[in-house]
Every structure is written in C-alpha cells, then in structure tokens.
Design goal:
The complex is a heterodimer of chains A (495) and B (101).
Chain A: H1 2-10, H2 12-27, H3 37-60, E1 65-67, E2 72-74, H4 76-103, H5 109-126, H6 130-148, H7 155-186, H8 191-201, H9 206-223, H10 231-238, H11 241-266, H12 271-294, H13 299-323, H14 331-357, E3 358-360, E4 363-364, H15 374-377, H16 379-393, H17 399-413, H18 417-443, E5 454-456, H19 460-478, H20 481-490
Helix pairs in contact in A: 2-3, 2-5, 3-4, 4-5, 4-11, 4-14, 4-20, 5-6, 5-11, 6-7, 6-11, 7-8, 7-9, 7-10, 9-11, 10-11, 10-13, 11-13, 11-14, 12-13, 12-18, 13-14, 13-17, 13-18, 14-16, 14-17, 14-19, 14-20, 16-18, 16-19, 17-18, 17-19
Chain B: H1 5-25, H2 29-54, H3 58-88
Helix pairs in contact in B: 1-2, 2-3
The chains are: A mainly alpha (495), B mainly alpha (101).
C-alpha cells in the first residue's frame, strides 16, 4: 500500500539510524580490530546525514506529520529533540574512540548499541501513543543495560549493569501498569483520546489519580529524580565513562521529552494535581542532590549527583509550565526546560570527555584527588574543565547561567517566585562542589606519593569536539538568542 | 455467564503488588527478575480485560508488544546475571557492594 510509503518516508531518519546500527553489528565480525575506527566514522556519517535531513525539514516546512495511524507525530517539538540527540550521540561516539582504546574495550557492537539506543530515543521524542512511548523507552533502556556492562572484565561495570537492569525493569513495570490503567479509562492508548477521556471523567476520579501517580513514578526513575534516584550514582560510577556521558545526557533528554509529551498532551487536564506532585519532587531533588554531592570524592559519582540536581532544575521549569496560566500559558516554562536540557547536554558531555581523557597509569583517574595539579601539567585540559565546571555551577558568562536564568524567569512568571528563590539558594550551594574541582586542579600540587602521574589520552577529533563544546558553552552564554528562539518556536506545538 | 471486569482488576492488582513486594524484599536476583515478570503479567491481565470490556483490540495488541519486550529484557537480564555470576560466584544482591547501593 502506498500508505506505508509516506509513513516510512516520515520516519526516514529513524530508519537510517536503525539500518546503520544493523550494518555496524553485521560488519563488526569481518572488520579487523585495527580498522574498527571505520565503524565509528560510519555511525558518525549516518548521524550527520540524519542531522542534515531533520535540519532540512525544519527549514522547509516545520509542520506536524503523523505516521502509522497516529502512533508517532514528527512535529517541531520532536525535531528540536532530534537535532539535540543526533549531535549528542555524534559527540559521544567521537569521545568514545580514544577512551575505549585506552580501556581495551574497543568493540564494534558498541556503536551498534549506541545507535539502537538512539533509535529508541528518537521514537520516544516523536511518540504520541503510549505504546510507542513504552517501546521507545524499552529500546533505549535495554541497549543502555548492555552498554553499562560492556567492560566485562571489571566487576564494577557488571555490578552497575545489574543494578541498572533490576531498577530499570522495575520502573518500566510501574510505568506499564499506569499505562494499562489509562487504557482502561480511555479505551485507547493515544494521548489525544486519553486527554479527552480525562476531560469527560473529571479529575477527581481515583483511577485517574492512581494511573497518573504510577506514570509519574515510572518516569521519575528514568529522569533520576529524588526519591527514585538511587540507581544513578552507582550506575554512573560503574559504567564506562563514555556511556555515563551518554546516559547522563541523551537518555535524560529523551526521557524528559517523552515525559513532557505525556503530561502536557495526555494528562494536561490534571495540571493542577501533577504540578503539586512535581513541585515536591523538584524541591526534594534539589535538596538531596546538592547535599549529597558535597561529600563525594569520586568525580563520576559527584557528576551523577550533579545530574540529579540538574533534573531538579528542569523540573522547576516544568512545574512553572504546569502552573503558568497567564496569556502565555505554559510556553515559557516548557521553552526553559528545552533550553536547559540543550545547554546541560553540552556542558556535561564536555566534563565527562575531560574525565575520560585523564589516565593514571593504566587506570582511569576518576577520583577528584587525581585532578590535583592538573593545571600545571595539562593547562589546556584544566582550563576546559574549569569552563565546564563554571557552566555547570551556572556562573556567567557561561551557558549554564543562561539555562538557569530562563528556568528561574519561567518560575517567577508563573507566580512561583519562592520556588525560584529556593532553587537559587541551592545553585549557590552547588557552586561549592564544582569549584572544589577547580580548586584542586589549580591550587593543589600533584600527590607526590602516587605511583604514576596522570596523563591524557586524546585524539584530534576529540580535541575538535572539545573545542566546539567549550566554544558553545561560552557563545551560548554570550549570545543565547538563536537557541532561545529555536526552543520557543519548537514549543508552539503545544498551543 | 461472564466474569465482571472488577474481578480481573482485583486479580491484576494483587499480582502487581506481589511483584512489587517481591522486588523490594527478595535478595536473589533471579527471584527479583521473576517478580518483575509478575508485574508485567499483571499489566497484561489489565490490558486483556479492558480490551474485552471495550470490545477493541488495542489492548491485546499492546500485550503482544509487552510480551516481546519482556522476553528481550529477560534475555539481556540473564546475560548480565551470568556475567556477574562468573566474576562474583553469587547472585545475592546484598553481596554486590563495590558500589554503594
């Protein structure tokens, strides 16, 4: 049928990603170990193609295209996330190359799994039916379980993988039960029908509330929001650093994209209820994440808590979107969420790239102490880390400041000035642990008792990507307008 | 005589809670995996019951997808558990303490 022709055309970028993933996995056994770089560059090439395709769609006509009888809808909102996800995945692949070689886990299927996880994320961001949202989430999660345990010789990697798997499967079960209850309410899993059913049934129906809470819990696990964050530090610490970066950035962005779609498009009628729920979750996340991050000595663990805290800030923007009922509605809140996640992605990727580069003997140098005196031995790497840390802390003129600025503005506009004030206080607290890393790099001398002084593994491509990330973090801090208008234009989908 | 919808919902509710309690209380990772399966199957009962109630097949289609995903998840999960057992010689999650739980 010609019907499927147009549907497949709408999903062309996803198809390119899936086909490339299969090709990479199929080519892996016949590629000699010395030529495995080619698989990585093949993946990056496919991503560049997708990026061009989606960019072209945005520039030509940025309209909503529904495919497969409304299971997915490619609209301006989905395209914003797709652009972000392609770039983030491309950067991850580039920063993986030297890291994987140094860790001796340079396997071809690594790239296949990254692309499969990406295809799950692409489905999540464009899904408008709970079925596709569930399938996308699972495709992403299952690929991530495997990648977390990639370093099979390290017990820590396997342990992280097992923990991630158990808690991930548990949260999917909770999410799925919520989905089944929503199906029972609406007789359909389409977000539009669910919104209609909630409109007719009223918002105080207990079944509606139970389903909403179950779905909120399921998503909170994926977003790593307190009190469902327990897996995050363990998994982020145990997983190979390049995968940690990918999880902290891409999986969080995709989960937030699907989460917003479900709660705004499907459960928008319950705004008053869920905004209170997420208000509480966001405050808990900010408080606990910041306090526990202070005492961490392992930098990957510290960044795991930092990523929990950033999820808290994003939730502040989301609550503002739920509360905003002026002329502009939830638009500033949702746009601030998208701006925040886009900026967060690049500064976090940059920070993890520097961590992945740092070697101590044959080992990863991932204790904060290992950064001692880095400014003297590797001034450039130390400077990059300084910029990323300043941006994560939200110090102007970096992009991290802009991200926080828009979230706080959205909260104030929605009449939640006190929430913005609380978030601001905790932003000041977070500066402590980010600046401690900078202090250790610049003020402390290298530990004389350490056997091997830390060195760096890098590659020309990685240097290029890092230069781009650092330029982006500073340029978006000085000239945020292009990103802001792109986000505002993309969020119009929900009007 | 048909079984009323509420019976199915009560059954699935009990199954789901059994699964949740199992995940939270049991310490053997295989049993935890089975408890997760119990949760997923409780969901399947819901879907099929609602599907029959509404006389539409969307729920039954969803069940097929859930079953497939559950199978994939178990395959990956068991692979992880086997790899873990080879390094640790145990599948009790209390023994996995390299990373603070």
């Amino acid at each position: 049928m010609s019907l499927y022709g147009t549907d497949l055309l709408a999903l062309l970028p996803e198809l390119i990603v899936v086909v490339t993933a299969c090709v990479v996995i199929a080519l892996d056994p016949i590629t000699p170990a010395s030529r495995r770089d080619l698989l990585a560059w093949l993946s990056v090439g496919a991503l560049a193609l997708c990026l061009g395709l989606t960019g072209w769609q945005i520039s030509v006509e940025n309209v909503r295209v529904s495919a497969f009888s409304d299971l997915v809808a490619i609209d301006a909102y989905a395209r914003f996330w797709k652009i972000l996800l392609y770039s983030v995945t491309g950067v991850t692949i580039v920063l993986s190359l030297p890291y994987l070689k140094a860790e001796r886990i340079h396997l071809g299927e690594y790239y296949g799994f990254i692309l499969l996880a990406l295809s799950g994320m692409l489905v999540m961001v464009s899904a408008v039916d709970l079925l596709t949202i569930y399938l996308g989430t699972e495709l992403m999660s299952i690929s991530l379980y495997v990648m977390t345990g990639l370093n099979r010789s390290k017990p820590r990697s396997l342990e992280a993988s097992a923990k991630y798997f158990v808690l991930g499967a548990f949260s999917s079960g909770i999410l799925l039960y919520g989905i089944s209850l929503l199906y029972g309410l609406a007789g359909s899993t389409k977000l539009a029908s669910i919104a209609g059913a909630i409109g007719t049934r009223g918002t105080d129906d207990p079944l509606v509330l139970i389903a909403t809470i179950l779905i909120a819990v399921g998503f909170s696990f994926k977003l790593a929001a307190v009190p469902f964050h327990m897996w995050t530090p363990d998994v982020y610490q145990g997983a190979p650093t390049s995968i940690t970066a990918f999880m902290a950035v891409a999986s969080k962005a995709a989960s937030f994209a699907a989460f917003i779609r479900v709660f705004v498009e499907g459960l928008g009628g319950l705004k008053a209820d869920w905004s209170i729920l997420f208000l509480i979750i966001s405050i808990l996340t900010l408080v606990l994440g910041n306090v526990v991050a202070i005492v961490q000595t392992n930098i990957k663990r510290m960044l795991a808590y930092s990523s929990i805290v950033h999820a808290g800030y994003v939730l502040v923007g989301f609550v503002a979107a739920g509360r905003g009922d002026g002329a502009s509605g939830g638009t500033p809140g949702l746009a601030s969420v998208m701006i925040y996640l886009a900026i967060y992605s690049f500064m976090t990727l940059g920070a993890f790239a520097v961590i992945g580069m740092l070697r101590k003997g044959g080992m990863e140098g991932e204790e904060i102490e290992d950064f001692a005196g880095l400014a003297k031995r590797q001034p450039l790497a130390a400077f990059l880390m300084l910029v990323f840390m300043a941006s994560l802390a939200g110090i102007p003129p970096t992009a991290g400041f802009i991200a926080k600025f828009y979230v706080f503005m959205a909260a104030v506009e929605a009449g939640l000035a006190w929430l913005a004030a609380v978030a601001l206080i905790f932003a000041a607290v977070s500066a402590y642990y980010y600046m401690r890393v900078v202090m250790v790099m610049y003020m402390r001398d290298p530990n004389p008792s350490s056997v091997a002084p830390p060195g760096l593994v890098t590659s020309p491509a990685l240097s290029f990507v890092l230069a781009c990330a650092v330029a982006g973090v500073i340029l978006f801090g000085l000239f945020p307008n292009p990103l802001v208008s792109f986000a505002l234009q993309s969020v119009l989908t929900f009007k | 005589m048909t079984v009323p919808l509420s019976y199915y919902l009560v059954l699935s509710g009990i199954m789901f809670l059994t699964g949740v309690v199992g995940v939270l209380l049991r310490r053997n990772i295989i049993i935890i995996l089975l408890s997760v399966e119990l949760m997923l199957n409780a969901t399947n009962i819901n879907f099929v019951a609602f599907s029959q109630y509404f006389h539409n097949v969307a729920g039954q289609v969803f069940v097929f997808f859930t079953l497939t995903v559950a199978a994939a998840e178990v395959a990956v999960g068991l692979a992880i558990i086997i790899a873990l057992y080879r390094t640790k010689s145990t599948i009790n999650i209390d023994e996995f303490q390299l990373l603070k739980w």
